[in-house]
Design a protein that fits this description.
The structure is a homodimer of 150-residue chains.
Chain A lengths: L7 E5 L5 E3 L2 H5 L9 E6 L5 E5 H11 L7 H12 L2 E4 L5 E3 L2 H7 L4 E7 L2 E5 L1 H10 L5 H10 L1
Antiparallel strand pairs in A: 1-7, 2-6, 3-4, 3-5, 4-8, 7-8
The structure holds a DNA duplex (30 and 30 nucleotides).
DNA sequence: TATTATTGTGGGTAGATGTGGGGAGAAATC
DNA sequence: GATTTCTCCCCACATCTACCCACAATAATA
C-alpha cells in the first residue's frame, strides 16, 4: 500500500546539485522500495516528475511486453525511457540531480516540490507561477466529465 | 528480477574503437549474466542494439520456433543472426566495437547510449535527432490502442 | 523554556568510474 | 617461420560519486 504524496515545500539545490527530498516523502518509500530510489523524468508540463522506483517499474514491466516489431512501440519506449533516470538518495536523503534534467525544468537553485498522489513534481518556482497563470481555468465541462467517473 | 534500463548518456569512442558501457548498465548484468556480455546487432531503426546476452538468448529461443520451410523465415533468421555479435566488456568495462556495425549506425566518435528497458540503443547523436524529428508523432489512435493493454 | 531527537545543509575525502595508451600474447597474413 | 595486425590485459590518472562527519535548523518532548 502506497500512501499518497501531498503538499508543497520549497527547497534549494546545494553547490553540488544535490536536492534534499523531504523526509515525509522518503518515508513512504521504505517499505516497498528498499533503497530510497526514485525514477526522475521529464514531465509533460515544464517540470520534473519523480516516481517511486516501484511505481515506475510496474509501468516499465508492461511496456516491456510491447512488440519491438512495431515502429511506434519502439519510438514510444525510446522517448519515454531516455528521459528517465534511476536515482538513489544518499545517506542524508539527497539526490544528485543531473544537469540535463535541471536544464529542462529551468531549475537553478530554488525548487518547489509538490506531492501529487503517486509522484512528486519538481518545479522552478517562477515557472510554476507562470504556468499556473497561463493555464486555462478548469471549466464546468471538465467537472461534468469528471462526474462521469466519480 | 531484471531492473529496466533507463536514461541517456553521451559517450565517445576512443582511438581503438572502444566504447565504455556506463557502470549502471553493466551492474544490471552481474546477477544473471556472469560475464558482462552483450549481443550487439543492427537495429530496425538506424542505430545499434545491445542486448544483455540473456535477453538475446531468450529471443533466439523464440526464433527457433519459426518454421524452416518458409523462405521468409529463413531469410529473417539469417539476417538476424549474421548481424549479431556477442561481445564481452574488457576489465575496464569497455566494448571493442566492430567497424562494420559502427558504419551501419554512422557512428564516428560520439555515441548516445539510451537505456530502453531490456536493451540499449546506440545512436550517432545527429542521426538520433533527425530520426526523432522525422518521426510521425504518436497519435491518439496509438494511445487508444495502448489503453486496451493497460 | 529547556532538552532531546529529527531533519536539512555544507564540505572533506576515499573509492568508483571514465579515458588514454603501452605492450604481451593471440591470430591472421605473407 | 617471420611479419603484421588485432585483442585484451595492465597501469596511470583525471573526474565524479557517495560516504562520512560536523553542525545548523527545525520539530517533538518533557
Amino acid at each position: 500500500m502506497i500512501t499518497s504524496f501531498a503538499g508543497e515545500s520549497k527547497h534549494f539545490l546545494d553547490e553540488k546539485s544535490r536536492l534534499s527530498i523531504p523526509a515525509k516523502y522518503r518515508r513512504w518509500l521504505t517499505e516497498e522500495d528498499a533503497e530510497y530510489t526514485f525514477v526522475i523524468t521529464k514531465g509533460a508540463d515544464p517540470c520534473l516528475i519523480a516516481y517511486p522506483a516501484v511505481e515506475w517499474d510496474m509501468f516499465a514491466e508492461k511496456l516491456r511486453n510491447l512488440s519491438q516489431f512495431k515502429k511506434k512501440n519502439r519510438a514510444f519506449i525510446r522517448t519515454w525511457s531516455r528521459n528517465s533516470i534511476r536515482l538513489k538518495c544518499d545517506k542524508q536523503g539527497r539526490i544528485l540531480m543531473p544537469q540535463r534534467l535541471l536544464d529542462f525544468a529551468n531549475i537553478k537553485k530554488e525548487v518547489a516540490i509538490i506531492g501529487a498522489l503517486n509522484y512528486l513534481e519538481l518545479w522552478e518556482p517562477e515557472m510554476l507561477k507562470e504556468h499556473q497563470e497561463s493555464q486555462i481555468p478548469l471549466d464546468d465541462d471538465y467537472f461534468e466529465d469528471l462526474a462521469d467517473i466519480f
